[in-house]
């Protein structure tokens, strides 16, 4: 429905139009009625008048005829003429004449004042009564009446009178004129009266109604229409007022409803806004969850790969090299197993922060999962990448402060350089991973990808294949390195270290082939061979009077092997070696990976009477107090702490406190990797029990190991220091 403003006429024109139409109609009808009435009364009046005139003329004629015989018989034509003249006094008589039997005129009268008569005389050409009358009688308004003059019932002549109807018509015209005047006056008065009544009773209320309707159209509903009369218009005005009232009320209600609707809308808008904001937040959160690691808030694998692709594209365009690094914490699993996941999480989190602080803003660092971090360094060549790796290791040197303890962490980092080591993201990542694996194996910290070291490289495949037959083919050999007692400089024992000389590729370092042996499932047989060989060697030495203990290294997998202690016992019996002549070196991490199982096996070894040494001590996370519960006789402080202890105060402190605590627990302490006399003297000052390293001798085949049984070679060095 549309509420268009009506384009009405102005009120005064409306008023004029209606009134004029009404008055014209009423006046027209009245005038027509009056006109018709006047016309009919005129006609009937005229008929009556004319009859009356005719009768009068007849009577006059008969009267003259009745008095005429005497005068005719007495030839008194003068009297007769005076009668006729007397008749002429009647205004509407035009002529009168009397004729005798023969039709001869006895007397005649012509009203010469009448212009008709004069016209007739002129037309007749004489005043002869018969000719003039004949002329006059042709006129329609003239009529004639004759009456016989009788005497004794015999006609002696006749009287003829001519009269004109003109005066009757004139009279009637006059009456008609005044009647018309009166009629018109009546019509005018009537119209005026009707107009006034109409205006008062119809126009004014109608105008009020119209004005009211226009107010309604404008939305003004408060001013009611005056109700002047109880008639239909008054009722209409009343109904109109009621309607306006209802409309006003419903308008109010509508306005109220509109207000409520507007309020509702506003609430709805606010709700929608709130929802939208919540959804945005959730979206941001979802994106964060999808792209960022929840623990460290670093980019996750997805985002990291995306960034890597991005850097790759830029590098392709420029073109310039860039570096991809993968870093894996060493023995992180132990941290989790020993201190719980909460500590592990804290550690990762802090390391994440450190790495971010170490790198530039343009570098991307992500956590790919577990303890594995990845870095992409745009516009970076091999040398710069190595510098960054050093920087990272520098930051890792600081122990990580956790809620309840501080932990030392070490990591292995692999580097791949674009385009040298790959031209797509997945190859670069794969090669950085291989380099990292190499770094872990060699404990070298970082390693740049080298095709030669690639697990999937042909070289490695060959080695993996060749190692299976290496023992049987006699390619394996044991070298021995002396372990010297600092107290007196005597050789306390030797450590057996495996060597593999490949027929084509030459010597392969144990850091490379031991993991291969572990992977190919040969470790059981290999360790069996090592112990067998070492014990055989001991029995040879023993025969020469040398009975210092021989240490052999065990793999983590040997500790999982339930049959291993029995096999060991068999070998001891086989070579008739007293158990205390054998020392088993087990790494800290090997014990931590499955502590229950390891403890079981170690107890077995102990029950056999074999001594146990914890190898590479300090690189894992087993605390000394934890060691207290293990059947252990000795710990070997890892080379990493020993090699720089001369310059590095921290290392010295670690070595010193480790020695003290170990002594408190009744354990012997071996320092690994002693390469110079200063370190040796420092260790002697710290009351370290034993030392091993290139300073005393590199690992050699048994036949070349002349230190055995010749402690005097060592002693002078100690004495130099003491003097
Ligand atoms: P490890 O048990 O810690 O052995 C000591 C390593 O330190 C030996 O490396 C030795 O040559 C080296 N070394 C000794 N003194 C010095 C020194 O003064 N300076 C430096 N820089 N290094 C020194 P090697 O023989 O290459 O053996 C590496 C690792 O391979 C061993 O570390 C051990 O974990 C493993 N391994 C060697 N032989 C065997 C074996 O028969 N069985 C098992 N399971 N593992 C073995
Ligand atoms: Ca060892
Ligand atoms: Ca060691």
Overall number of strands: 21
Question: Helix coverage percent of residues?
Answer: 55-70%
Low-confidence stretches: 1-6, 708-723
Number of domains: 3
| Level-2 CATH architecture of the largest domain | Alpha-Beta Barrel
- Summed over residues and divided by their number, the pLDDT gives a mean of 86
Gap between N and C termini: 121 Å
Treating each run of at least 4 consecutive H or I residues as one helix, how many helices? 23
Task: Provide the list of bound ligands, each named once.
Answer: ligand C2E, calcium ion
Rg from Cα: 76 Å
- Strand order within the widest beta sheet: 12-13-15-16-17-18-19-20
The class by helix and strand makeup works out as alpha/beta
Q: Tell me about the biggest sheet?
A: 8 strands, mixed, barrel
Percentage of residues in strands = 15-25%
CATH topology annotation of the largest domain: TIM Barrel
**Outline, from the CA principal axes?**
rod-shaped
Q: Say which CATH homologous superfamily of the largest domain is assigned.
A: EAL domain
CATH classification class of the largest domain? Alpha Beta
Task: Provide an overview of this structure.
The strands form four sheets. Strands 12-13-15-16-17-18-19-20 form an eight-stranded mixed beta barrel, surrounded by four helices. Strands 6-7-5-10-11 form a five-stranded mixed beta sheet, sandwiched between helices. Strands 2-1-4-3 form a four-stranded antiparallel beta sheet, with helices on both faces. 31% of the residues are buried. It starts with 10 loop residues before the first helix and ends with a helix. With 723 residues, it is of the alpha/beta class. Helix content is 56%, strand content 17%. It has three domains: 11-253, no CATH class; 301-453, Reverse transcriptase/Diguanylate cyclase domain (Alpha-Beta Plaits); 476-722, TIM Barrel, CATH 3.20.20. Ligand C2E binds next to strand 13, helix 13 and strand 17.
């Amino acid at each position: 429905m549309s509420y268009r403003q009506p384009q009405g006429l102005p009120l005064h024109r409306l008023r004029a139009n209606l009134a004029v139409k009404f008055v014209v109609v009423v006046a027209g009808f009245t005038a027509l009625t009056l006109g018709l009435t006047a016309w009919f009364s005129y006609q009937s009046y005229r008929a009556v008048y004319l009859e009356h005139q005719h009768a009068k003329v007849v009577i006059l004629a008969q009267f003259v005829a009745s008095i005429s015989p005497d005068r005719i018989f007495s030839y008194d034509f003068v009297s007769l003429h005076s009668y006729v003249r007397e008749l002429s006094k009647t205004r509407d008589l035009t002529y009168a004449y009397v004729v005798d039997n023969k039709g001869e005129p006895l007397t005649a009268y012509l009203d010469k004042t009448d212009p008709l008569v004069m016209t007739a005389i002129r037309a007749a050409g004489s005043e002869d009564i018969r000719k003039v009358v004949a002329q006059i009688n042709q006129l329609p308004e003239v009529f004639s009446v004759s009456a016989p003059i009788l005497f004794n019932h015999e006609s002696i002549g006749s009287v003829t009178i001519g009269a004109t109807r003109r005066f009757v018509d004139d009279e009637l015209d006059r009456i008609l004129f005044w009647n018309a005047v009166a009629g018109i006056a009546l019509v005018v008065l009537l119209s005026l009266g009707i107009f006034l009544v109409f205006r008062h009773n119809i126009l004014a209320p109608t105008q009020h109604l119209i004005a009211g309707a226009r107010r309604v159209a404008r939305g003004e509903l408060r001013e009611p229409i005056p109700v002047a009369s109880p008639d239909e218009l008054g009722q209409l005005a009343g109904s109109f007022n009621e309607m306006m009232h209802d409309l006003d009320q419903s308008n109010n209600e509508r306005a109220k409803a509109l207000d409520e609707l507007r309020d509702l809308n506003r609430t709805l808008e606010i709700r929608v806004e709130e929802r939208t904001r919540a959804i945005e937040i959730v979206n941001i959160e979802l994106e964060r969850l999808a792209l960022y690691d929840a623990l460290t808030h670093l980019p996750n694998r997805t985002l990291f790969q995306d960034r890597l692709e991005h850097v790759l594209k830029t590098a392709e365009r420029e073109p310039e090299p860039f570096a991809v690094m993968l870093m894996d914490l060493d023995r992180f699993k132990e941290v989790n197993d020993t201190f719980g996941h909460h500590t592990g999480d804290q550690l990762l989190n802090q390391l994440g922060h450190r790495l971010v602080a170490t790198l530039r803003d343009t570098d991307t660092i992500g956590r790919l999962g577990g303890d594995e971090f990845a870095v992409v360094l745009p516009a970076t060549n091999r040398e710069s990448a190595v510098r960054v790796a050093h920087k990272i290791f520098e930051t890792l040197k600081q122990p990580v402060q956790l809620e309840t303890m501080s932990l030392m962490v070490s990591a292995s980092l692999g580097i791949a350089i674009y385009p040298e080591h790959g031209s797509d993201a997945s190859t670069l990542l794969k090669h950085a991973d291989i380099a990292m694996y190499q770094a872990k194996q060699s404990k070298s910290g970082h390693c740049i990808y080298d095709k030669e070291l690639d697990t999937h490289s042909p070289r490695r495949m060959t080695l993996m294949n060749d190692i299976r037959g290496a023992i049987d083919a006699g390619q394996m050999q044991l070298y021995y390195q002396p372990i010297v007692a600092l107290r007196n400089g005597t050789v306390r024992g030797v450590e057996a270290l495996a060597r593999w000389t490949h027929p084509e590729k030459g010597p392969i370092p144990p850091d490379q082939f031991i993991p291969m042996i572990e992977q190919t499932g040969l470790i059981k047989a290999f360790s069996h061979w090592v112990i067998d060989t070492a014990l055989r060697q001991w029995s040879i030495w023993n025969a020469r009077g040398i009975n210092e203990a021989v240490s052999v290294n065990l793999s983590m997998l040997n500790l999982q092997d339930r049959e291993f202690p029995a096999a060991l016992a068999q070998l001891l019996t086989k070579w008739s070696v007293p158990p205390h002549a054998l020392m088993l070196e087990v790494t800290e991490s090997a014990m931590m990976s499955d502590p229950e199982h390891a403890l079981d096996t170690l107890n077995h070894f102990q029950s056999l009477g074999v001594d146990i040494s914890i190898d590479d001590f300090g690189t894992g996370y087993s605390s000394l107090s934890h060691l207290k519960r293990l059947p252990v006789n000795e710990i070997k402080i890892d080379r990493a702490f020993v090699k720089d202890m001369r310059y590095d105060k921290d290392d010295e402190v670690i070595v010193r406190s480790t020695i003290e605590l170990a002594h408190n627990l009744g354990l012997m302490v071996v320092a690994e990797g002693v390469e110079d006399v200063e370190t040796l003297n420092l260790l002697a000052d710290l009351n370290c029990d034993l030392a091993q390293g290139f300073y005393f001798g590199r690992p050699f085949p048994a036949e070349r190991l002349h230190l055995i049984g010749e402690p005097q070679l060592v002693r002078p060095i100690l004495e130099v220091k003491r003097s």
